[in-house]
């Protein structure tokens, strides 16, 4: 099987941290742990070293022409989002996207996509300290203030890419770039592969919520509330196969449903219902990849109640069906 080809787009003004994240996710050989083979290439206008902050430099190993062969293009964040991206880089981004290649920008890399005109008429996210700047500099972009990452080509957060448009991802600041990279792995190679990479990086396979939880604001809750919410989340993860409502979870936290929902959202950036749905989807993905359980049993263990309900949520959130997901990502799957 051919390697999955990832182009790291290199040019002056890119952040070393994001380069390291991209390299750690796609540039480390983990085939001995069942991870597919990736081919990561550092693509620049020429082979000259690309300067980065802190006295570092990046040595390109391919020119921009290699983007024509890539399965995914990833743009690191920018140190200074006001600096202009070199025109050849913008042209290469436009060509790749026009060819149908998914493009992902980490943190302030959204400014590079905006300079290329790829985000015009679409939604985008960047670090929360830069959202106003992105809105002012690129008024044709719909800036979303509180996501961790989004597909800018989608009509809504849970929608599939718009017809005829390749996925166009942007992410919030720093650690959200890790979230996006692992999400892209999960989308193309399955939850088990993403989890294996996450474990080797000692990070969570996925985080739910929005970057609103990280914006500076007065502390409104105490440690006792945070501990109670953590215990409730742990309980919910152990009992996904049971009916769980905001009322039952609030009772376990010793709060009213209204107070529980408010504290939960402030702590995680997600509503209890949406967080619970994310956990159930993740549980179903793991079961589909790791077991041969029948679909109704997968639905029951993941807490969906019925195969029909599980299928509806897979279609809405993952743009696929449980059966197709298993066919794509279960090593033991057989169509017979």
Q: Could you please describe the fold and organization of this structure?
A:
With about 325 residues, the chain is an alpha/beta fold. It folds into 3 domains: about 5-200, Rossmann fold, CATH 3.40.50.880; about 220-270, Arc Repressor Mutant, subunit A; about 275-330, Homeodomain-like (Arc Repressor Mutant, subunit A), CATH 1.10.10.60. The protein has 13 helices and 11 strands. The strands form 3 sheets. It has a 7-stranded mixed beta sheet with strand order 5-2-1-6-7-11-10, sandwiched between helices. Helix 5 (about 175-190) runs antiparallel to helix 6, helix 7 (about 225-240) packs across helix 8 and helix 10 (about 270-290) runs antiparallel to helix 11. It is globular and about 60 Å long. It starts with a strand and ends in a 7-residue tail after the last helix.
Write the layout of secondary structure elements.
Blueprint: E1 4-9, H1 16-26, E2 38-44, E3 50-52, E4 56-58, E5 62-63, E6 72-75, H2 87-98, E7 103-105, H3 110-115, E8 123-124, H4 131-137, E9 142-143, E10 149-151, E11 168-171, H5 175-189, H6 191-201, H7 223-238, H8 246-253, H9 257-268, H10 272-290, H11 295-302, H12 307-318, H13 322-329
Parallel strand pairs: 1-2, 1-6, 2-5, 6-7, 7-11, 8-9
Antiparallel strand pairs: 3-4, 10-11
Helix pairs in contact: 1-5, 5-6, 7-8, 8-9, 10-11, 10-13
- Separation of termini? 22 Å
| Total number of distinct structural domains | 3
Number of strands: 11
CA-atom Rg in angstroms: 21 Å
The CATH superfamily of the largest domain turns out to be Class I glutamine amidotransferase (GATase) domain
Number of helices: 13
**Spatial strand order of the main sheet:** 5-2-1-6-7-11-10
Envelope shape: globular
Poorly predicted ranges: 155-164, 209-222
Structural class: alpha/beta
Largest sheet: 7 strands, mixed
- Give the proportion of residues in helices: 40-55%
The CATH architecture assignment of the largest domain turns out to be: 3-Layer(aba) Sandwich
């Amino acid at each position: 099987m051919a390697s999955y080809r990832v182009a790291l787009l290199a040019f002056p003004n890119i952040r070393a941290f994001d380069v390291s994240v991209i390299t750690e996710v796609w540039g480390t050989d983990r085939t001995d742990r069942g991870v597919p083979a990736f081919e990561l290439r550092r693509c620049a206008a020429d082979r000259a070293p690309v300067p980065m902050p802190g006295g570092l430099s990046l040595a390109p190993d391919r020119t921009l022409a290699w983007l024509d062969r890539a399965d995914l293009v990833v743009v690191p964040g920018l140190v200074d989002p006001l600096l202009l991206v070199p025109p050849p880089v913008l042209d290469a981004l436009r060509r790749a996207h026009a060819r149908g290649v998914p493009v992902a920008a980490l943190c302030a890399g959204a400014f590079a996509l905006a300079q290329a005109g790829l985000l015009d008429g679409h939604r985008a996210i960047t670090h929360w300290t830069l959202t106003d700047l992105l809105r002012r500099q690129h008024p044709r972009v719909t800036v979303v203030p509180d996501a961790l990452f989004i597909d800018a080509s989608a009509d809504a957060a849970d929608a599939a890419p718009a017809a005829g448009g390749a996925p166009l991802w942007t992410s919030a600041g720093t650690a959200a770039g890790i979230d996006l990279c692992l999400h892209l792995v999960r989308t193309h190679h399955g939850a088990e592969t993403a989890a294996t990479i996450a474990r080797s990086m000692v990070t969570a396979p996925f985080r739910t919520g929005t970057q609103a939880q990280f914006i500076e604001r007065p502390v409104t809750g105490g440690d006792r509330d945070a501990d109670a919410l953590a215990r409730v989340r742990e309980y919910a993860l152990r009992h996904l196969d049971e009916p769980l409502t905001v009322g039952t979870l609030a009772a376990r936290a010793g709060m009213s449903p209204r107070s529980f929902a408010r504290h939960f959202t402030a702590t995680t950036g997600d509503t209890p219902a949406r967080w619970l749905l994310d956990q159930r989807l993740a549980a179903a993905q793991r079961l589909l990849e790791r077991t041969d359980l029948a679909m109704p049993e997968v639905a029951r263990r993941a807490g969906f109640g019925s195969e029909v309900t599980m299928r509806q949520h897979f279609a809405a959130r993952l743009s696929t069906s449980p059966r197709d997901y298993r066919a794509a990502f279960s090593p033991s799957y057989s169509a017979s």
